[in-house]
Design goal:
The protein is 37% helix and 16% strand. The chain has 308 residues and is of the alpha/beta class. The protein has one domain: Alpha/Beta hydrolase fold, catalytic domain (Rossmann fold), CATH 3.40.50.1820. The chain has an 8-stranded mixed beta sheet, with helices on both faces. α3 (102-115) packs across α4 and α6 crosses α8. The longest helix has 19 residues, at 169-187.
Length: 308
């Protein structure tokens, strides 16, 4: 399957950066053995399914793919069944037949779990847009969700970001740059091919791009150039979920980067306030992709939360 990471080359020290291991464990996995197509509503969805035990579901963000979780899947799959999804319109999954909506994404994930024979409660771990979808699942399908992890979850400030209502010239410029590059990537492969444009996009989503291993950066490009970007962005900005967050009853962990340039860290406190059984962790010197920037700490914090 074409979404399999290219995992045969060892990164150089310059690619890996001082904080990265010489060879990340995920590079030695034959991911093709764990990828499958699952039909949901007559359309195929690309799914990674690995490990056995209680089920943990990973949901990527806007312009993302299942590869956003390469640093996190294996540590949990040691004693869990880890399922990572390319949401319709992203990664290798084609566009859905219906218009993209947050609610339809939530139902798609539930129907996919049914197709995989998962009938127990699951833990949802969602980054950005994936966190938004996770919240919708917890509201609409509470009997399917055991725990919820929001990793820089979207849903509160996104409407203001899209329409440039935030104060400060730098914030407006960064929002415009991210959405502009994201839209460009959805219609051309220029962003993927251009090292300069890739770096510009990385600077918006991680605090220190130079600390990410080169092969890991390459794998993140699988989320770019996909047709779902515009429709998914419109769907999120059109759905005000704030007043419904109080309906979430499951324990919720909120994880954020203090230097997040896309979704402001103040949203972490607001999610904590609005969700009844929630608590937050804020990582210093960290951007929007917490799980890739601080994988060891993130994996330990998530495991501790799941095992409570």
């Amino acid at each position: 399957m074409s979404s399999n990471p290219r995992h045969r080359r060892t990164p150089s020290s310059a690619e890996a950066g001082a904080a990265a291991p010489a060879r990340p464990a995920w590079m030695d996995v034959d991911w093709r053995a764990h990828l499958r197509w699952v039909e949901v509503r007559g359309r195929p969805v690309n799914v990674l399914d690995i490990g056995e035990g209680p089920v943990v579901v990973f949901l990527h963000g806007l312009a993302g793919s299942w590869q956003n979780w390469l640093e996190n899947i294996l540590p949990l799959a040691a004693d869990h069944r880890a399922i990572a999804i390319d949401l319709p319109g992203f990664g290798e999954s084609p566009m859905p037949e219906r218009a993209i909506s947050v609610s339809d994404y939530a139902r798609t994930v539930v129907e996919l779990l049914n197709a995989l024979g998962v009938d127990e409660r699951v833990t949802i771990i969602g980054n950005s847009m994936g966190g938004f979808v996770g919240c919708e699942m917890a509201i609409r399908f509470p009997k399917r969700i055991e725990r919820l992890v929001l990793v820089a979850g979207a849903g509160l400030s996104l409407r203001h970001m899209r329409h440039e209502r935030k104060t400060g010239a730098r914030a407006r410029f960064e929002n415009l740059l991210f959405f502009g590059l994201g839209r460009l990537a959805a219609h051309t492969d220029l962003v993927v091919r251009s090292r300069r444009l890739r770096r510009a996009l990385l600077l918006l989503i991680v605090a220190h791009p130079e600390k990410l291993a080169g092969p890991l950066i390459v794998e993140q490009a699988h989320g770019a150039g996909k047709p779902g970007f515009d429709d998914a962005l419109d769907a999120m900005t059109a759905y005000p979920i704030r007043d419904r967050l109080g309906e979430i009853a499951c324990p919720t962990l909120i994880v954020w980067g203090e230097e997040d340039r896309l979704v402001p860290v103040r949203d972490a406190a607001e999610f904590e306030w609005l969700i009844l059984d929630a608590r937050k962790i804020v990582y210093p010197d960290t951007g929007h992709m917490v799980m890739l920037e601080r994988p060891e700490r993130f994996n330990a914090d998530v495991r501790a939360f799941i095992e409570e």
